[in-house]
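Forgive a beginner's question, but would it be possible to get any protein sequence you like and the C-alpha cells describing how it folds?
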Amino acid sequence: MQLTQLLGVLTIRGVVSGERMIKRFCQTALIAAMAYLLALPAFADSQARVVRLSSVEGNVQVDRNSGQGYEKAFLNMPITQGNKLRTSEDGRAEVEFEDSSTLRVTPNSVLEFPQLSLRDSGAKASTVEIKQGTTYVNFRGEKNAEFTLNFGREKVALTKPVHLRIELADAESTLAVFKGDVKVEGQSGPVDVSKKHAVTFDLADNDKYELAGNFEEDPYDSWDKQQEQYHDRYMASNYSNYSPYMYGTSDLNYYGNFYSVPGYGTVWQPYFTGFGWDPFMNGAWMWYPGYGYSWVSGYPWGWTPYHYGSWIFAPGYGWVWQPGGAWAGWYTNPRVINPPPRFNPPHPPSTPGNTTVVVNRGGFTPPGGPASRKIIIRNDSAGLGIPRGSIRDLGKVNQKVSQEGSVAVKLHPAPVVLASPTQSSMSRSTAGSTPGVRPSAPVSRPAPVHSTPHMSAPSPHASSPTPHASTPHR
C-alpha cells in the first residue's frame, strides 16, 4: 500500500489523529527496514572469493564440489569455498591468496577449504582444514584478514605475518614456526609458539603437547624456501600496484615484462610470443557449480591477465595485456579488444555440464610432468613448460629465441627430491613422539584420477595480418 493510500484510510476511519497516525506509520516502516537490514549480513558474508592453484607438480587432485569427486588438478584452477585438494606420492602444490599469502602442500597430503568468503566489512575470511600430511603456510598479514588453520583438534587464528609448517600424522601433529609467532588453541589449552620453536601434540593422550626448540629440518623445507625466495624476488616491481590484488604478480614479473605502447599506455607481454601466438591457445573450460564455465589458462603466468584488465592486439607489438577496469573473479569470456581479422575469441561450451574441455592449439604440455634438466624454448611457447625460477635471466633468453626461433636451455637443479620421505619428519623433532591412535576423521587413500577429454578449439587461429615485432625490454 502506498503512503498516500495508507494516510487516507487512517484519516477516514478516524482511527488515530494525524500525529499518532504518523508515529504508527513510522514504526511500521522501521520494523520493515530492520527486517531488511538484518538479512543483509548473511547475504554479504556469502560473497564468494576465488583463490589460485598457483603451482602443480606431479599427481595433484581437486574436488570442486561439483559432484564429480576428485579430478586431475590444473595450474591456475580457481579454488573456491568447499573445495578439497590432495596430493599423491609424487604430488606437490601451492595455493596463492589475494594478498600473496601461500599454502604449499607436500606429497600425501589433504586440505579442505570450508570457508573462502568476504565479510560485509570487506574483510576476507579464510578457513583451511589440514586433514593429512605436511603443509607450509606463509601468511602475509593483510589488514582485517581472518585466516584460520585447523589441524587435528587444534586451531590457529593468524592475525600477523608468520611462516610455519604443520604436519599431521596418525599418532601426532606438529606445528613449527620459521618466522613470527602464533597461539595454538586445543584440548590441552592455549600454547604460544615463537620463532624457531615447535609444538607436538599427542593425539592418543588428549592432545597433550611438548614444546621444543632447534627442531630438525624437513626434507621439503628447502623446496618451500626456494618457492618463497622466488615470490620475494619477483614480487618487487615498479608495476606491482597495477592490480587490486597481489597474487600472480611474481609470475608476471618473471615470465614477461611491462613497457609502454603508444595509444595504450603501460602494458604487459609474456616472453616468447612469436608470430601467430594468441593468449587463448592453451587452457581449459572448467565448470563450477553456481558459476558455470570459467576459462583456466595453461600458461604459468596465466592468472591475473584472465581475471583483470583486457587483452589487446596492438599492431606492431602483437597481443599485450592492459591492466585496469574492475576485478572479475569469474570471467565467462576473457576481455578482448581490437582483435585481428578472422580471430575467434574463446567461447565456453554451449551445453552446461561438469565436463572439462581442454583447448590445445600450440603444442600443449600438461603441467606437472617430470622436470627435465634441459628444455627447448620455442618462439611461440609464451613460457609454457618453463618451471618458475628455473632460468636466471628469462628476458635475455627471450632475445635469443626471437632471433633464432628456438633455444636449448639448461634448468637449475631442484633443491629437493620428488619422492616422499618414507616416514614423517615429525619423528625427527627434538620433541618426543608418543605412539597413539588414528585421528577421529581418517582420510581415504587417493582414488584414480578422473580422465579428462582432450579437445581442440572449435576453430583454428588465423594468422595475424601484422608481423610481430620484437618485444621491447627494460
